[in-house]
Write a structure and sequence with these properties.
Blueprint lengths: L1 E8 L8 E3 L6 E5 L6 H13 L7 H4 L11 E8 L2 E8 L5 E8 L2 E7 H12 L17 H4 E2 L13 H11 L6 H17 L12 H193 L5 H24 L1 E5 L5 E7 L2 E7 L7 E5 L2 E6 L3 E6 L3 H22 L6 H28 L4 H21 L10 H67 L6 H24 L6 H39 L4 H63 L3 E6 L5 E6 L13 H23 L3 E6 L7 H14 L3 E7 L11 E4 H10 L1
């Protein structure tokens, strides 16, 4: 199969669509930067060939362009087995699938929907996954010929049997016969009756599995009956133990009730004593609180007075600071005002100079634009003169009716043919010379063409004629002379000559001349005129590289700029300063400007320092005022606190007397409390009584539970003694033994089938080793050209992936996975190319090999070798390369597709 074209639309980053057509049958390079859509294009080709158009789910929805509701579409045009097909698929929203074949120079629909997909799978010799996106192991031969980005060796799922069989038949290895396949299928069928395909365990529903279940159930019944038989003894023993436990629990309950009554009496007396003590403690706390309140008030009043004295001192100091800061601020404010006035005057001087500088610069521009206008006008005049000369030469060229070089070459060929045939005819024609002895007249017929003649004896000349076939001479008064030639060659040459002369004359008539020499001269004159025109064109382009319109626009722009300056500065219109004088005047003004600017910067710097000092003083005043406000707030707060503390209207002495009285009352209450006897730990007593009560309840519940369980066990014992348990146990044991014998027999049969299958599998592995041997030989030969002859042999497994590599002078073989990524990459490409070449050679049709970014990790030396190999394989294969580096493939004559250009062209359209 080879690809002719592919069109993708609404597919991930290819939202505007892209079309690649007329693929070369050898090497094609699809290139572009990252995110340009190369891998997206390959993904669309895979999905278009192998996936169901009705596919749903997140896998296919990921192909929808972000932020749209557009269904992904792909159309693929390809050749296979001498036929040309086109598959058209759309996914998700309005899914469709159409398959066409090119017949009688037009496309014809051969299937659609599910039928089209089935036909496509037959054409591609592929299969479909049971659900979701079709996996690579279902791609048919594409799974071994296409190399997606990042894949090493073959697909994870392995090569399927259909593709392996295809390769086997192509290689011509008749190592697995039809009889082998029949036996293998029969054994596989029997194996699958017993075992699962993946894990090799007994399959659900198979005889061994069913017998396992029956044995398990019979064993469960036997164990259940055995357990019931054993439980009878346990039940009888448990009844005896329960009766003993019941008696002990009854005795323990009586003892607990007695202890509970005794503890409850002690707790009642303790509660009464605790109540008395609690009342006395409350009285003591009240007296203590009265004393503390009075004492705290006296202490707080003392603290408030001391605090007010200290705060007043602070207030006076802060007020003095604020006054000092205000005086300093006024001084700086006055100095700032003076500097600002000086700054205003200096800035006015600067504005005057800047205005003069602007005028001076405009004067320079005016001089420049005047000179530029003059130069442009001179160039326009020069160009117009050259254009007029060119027009004159073109008119002269048009008046010459000269043939082109091709027409002149054709005329010369026709002239050569006429000359050649004339020469040959001249050699074979009749040549007649006649010299009369007396005056004669008459006519001759040369091949039927009449020509009169007359001559006298005194002419002393000889008449000559040439004729091809016949010559007749009629002499007046004498008679007729007839000469006939029998040469067929002369007749044929005459016909050829007539035909050539006719064609030659027809070609000359077009130009109205009779001689080719004149046409040659005309052609030479025309070429000389064209050369002169081209020379003038070169001179014009040198003067106006961007064209006459651009030059005219530049002239108009210069005139416009000149007019703007004259309008803005009319006083400059009549000045006639040179550019040097204008520049000197500007330079003096700029020096004055620099001096004034430095003065302004110095003034601004001094002003900035004063502003900084001013802001600092303002900040100090603000902070000091805030501090004064805080102190005043604290003074007011202390005064308010003092007012609240003296609200009782007592003097300091009265408060001291009241404090002494409260202290006496507190001491008396403490003495009465100490006279009361101590109270036992109430919490401990209450907890003990509570535990005893709970113990009595638990013992009651336990006694009740023991009684119920005892009654239940006695009832169970009575019921199980009469249901024939012993005979049922014996029957279950006999049934279990019989089923175990059947189970052993079935497993022996199943394991025999498994042994046969394993034996056939070993035979298949040996056969597959013979199948991959030709692949191994070819790949090893090419791989040595890349990696060196030290790699002696590359051995493959039956999945066509390298198993190990033999290295000369080493005892151990190298693991392919231990190779560098670049070497693995090169070996991986060679495997695809070799398989593709073998398929192409055996089936006598090209195969398509797709390589996504194949040489990304290959160094420059090996890259050259790989490019030569790719070029060599392209004789039998269509190779499609997707890459970010098209420069790698520039020397092998590959057809190039630039994804970025194709996308941009699509967007512009």
């Amino acid at each position: 199969m080879i690809l002719n074209s592919i069109a993708v639309k609404n597919w991930a980053v290819l939202v505007d669509g892209v079309r690649l057509e007329n693929f070369d049958s050898s090497i094609n390079v699809i290139h572009g930067p990252n995110e340009s859509g190369k891998s997206t294009l390959m993904d669309a080709m895979i999905r278009g060939f192998f996936d169901r158009h009705k596919l749903k789910g997140e896998d296919i929805r990921q192909r929808i362009p972000w932020g749209t509701d557009l269904g992904p579409e792909v159309t693929i045009d390809f050749y296979n087995n001498g036929n040309r097909y086109q598959v058209d698929k759309r996914f998700v929203y309005t899914s469709r699938c159409e398959l066409r074949r090119y017949m009688d120079e037009k496309w014809g629909l051969i299937a659609d929907g599910d039928n089209a997909e089935e036909r496509l799978l037959e054409i591609l010799e592929s299969s479909r996954s049971s659900r979701g996106l079709t996996k690579s192991e279902n791609w048919g031969l594409a799974q071994v010929l296409w190399l997606p980005q990042g894949q090493i060796w073959m697909p994870d799922g392995g090569i399927n049997e259909n593709s392996r069989g295809k390769l086997q038949s192509v290689l011509g290895e008749v190592i697995l016969t039809d009889v082998f396949h029949c036996v293998e299928n029969e054994i596989q069928g029997r194996y699958e009756k017993f075992f699962t395909r993946v894990r090799g365990e007994f399959k659900s529903g198979s005889e061994p599995k069913e017998l396992d279940n029956q044995v398990e159930k019979a064993q469960e019944r036997y164990l259940e009956l055995k357990e019931r038989w054993d439980s009878l003894d346990e039940l009888n023993n448990e009844i005896v133990n329960l009766e003993k436990t019941f008696a002990l629990s009854q005795k323990e309950l009586n003892q607990a009730k007695t202890e509970l009554k005794k503890s409850q009496d002690i707790l009642s007396k303790a509660k009464e004593q605790a109540s008395k003590r609690e009342k006395q403690e409350q009285e003591y706390k009240i007296r203590e609180s009265d004393w503390k309140n009075i004492n705290d008030t006296i202490r707080e009043l003392k603290d408030v007075k001391e605090s007010l004295i200290e705060l007043d001192k602070q207030r006076m100091n802060i007020e003095k600071k604020i006054k000092d800061y205000s005086i300093e601020f006024q001084k700086i404010e006055e100095e700032t005002k003076n500097i600002n006035n000086k700054l205003d005057e200096t800035e006015k001087q600067r504005d005057i100079i800047e205005s003069e500088i602007k005028t001076a610069r405009s004067r320079i521009e005016l001089v420049r634009f005047k000179r530029e206008k003059q130069e442009l006008e001179e160039r326009v005049n020069q160009i117009e003169e050259l254009i007029n000369q060119q027009k004159k030469l073109k008119n002269e060229l048009d008046s010459i009716k000269a043939p082109s070089n091709k027409e002149l070459e054709l005329l010369q060929k026709l002239y050569g043919k006429v000359t050649e045939v004339q020469t040959r005819l001249e050699a074979s024609a009749l040549h007649i010379e006649f010299k009369p002895s007396f005056n004669i007249q008459g006519f001759v017929l040369k091949d039927g063409q009449k020509e009169p003649f007359e001559m006298s004896q005194s002419d002393q000349k000889v008449l000559e004629w040439r004729a091809v076939q016949s010559f007749d001479m009629n002499i007046s008064g004498l008679g007729r002379l007839s000469i006939t030639s029998g040469s067929d060659e002369a007749v044929n040459l005459k016909k050829v000559l007539d035909n050539h002369e006719k064609n030659y004359q027809s070609a000359l008539d077009k130009f109205g001349v009779m001689d080719i020499k004149e046409l040659i001269q005309r052609n030479k004159d025309a070429e000389d005129l064209e050369n002169e025109i081209n020379q003038l064109n070169i001179q014009i382009k040198a003067l106006i590289p961007k064209g006459l319109n651009a030059l005219t626009k530049q002239l108009k722009k210069t005139e416009s700029e000149l007019g703007v300056i004259r309008e803005e500065y009319p006083e400059l219109a009549d000045e006639d300063l040179s550019n040097e004088e204008a520049k000197n005047k500007l330079k003096k003004l700029e020096l004055n400007q620099t001096e004034i600017t430095n003065q302004i910067r110095k003034i601004q710097k001094n002003l900035a320092l004063l502003n900084t000092q001013q802001r600092k003083i303002e900040s100090n005043i603000s902070n000091t005022q805030q501090e004064l406000t805080r102190i005043q707030t604290r003074i007011e707060s202390q005064k308010e606190r003092q007012s609240k503390l003296t609200s009782d209207r007592l003097t300091d002495a009265e408060r001291q007397d009241k404090l002494k009285t409260a202290l006496d009352e507190m001491d008396k209450a403490k003495q009465r409390l100490d006279d009361l006897p101590p109270v036992e730990n109430m919490n401990q007593l209450e907890n003990y009584v509570k535990r005893l009560d709970n113990q009595v309840q638990e013992l009651n519940e336990n006694l009740k539970s023991i009684k119920e369980k005892l009654d239940t066990n006695k009832g169970q014992l009575k019921g199980q003694e009469g249901d024939g348990l012993y005979s049922r146990l014996a029957e279950a044991e006999e049934e279990l033994e019989l089923l175990r014998q059947k189970q052993h027999s079935a497993k022996v049969q199943a394991n025999s089938v498994k042994l046969l299958k394993d034996t056939l599998s070993e035979c298949r592995q040996e056969a597959m080793a013979n199948l991959v041997e030709p692949i191994s030989q070819r790949v090893t030969q090419i791989f040595q050209r890349i990696a060196g002859e030290s790699y002696d042999n590359v051995t493959f497994n039956d999945n066509f992936a390298p198993e190990y590599i033999n290295i000369r002078n080493r005892e151990e073989n190298a693991n392919p996975d231990a190779l560098s990524y670049g070497t693995k990459e090169q070996l991986n490409i060679l495997i695809r190319l070799t398989l593709g070449q073998i398929l192409a050679e055996k089936e006598e049709q090209r195969q398509m090999v797709v390589l996504d970014d194949p040489l990304a990790h290959t160094d420059s030396e090996r890259q050259d070798s790989m490019l030569r190999i790719l070029d060599n394989y392209a004789r039998n294969l269509q190779i499609i390369i997707l890459t970010c580096h098209p420069e790698y493939y520039s020397d092998i004559g590959a057809k190039s597709f630039d994804m970025q250009v194709l996308k941009n062209n699509k967007q512009e359209r």
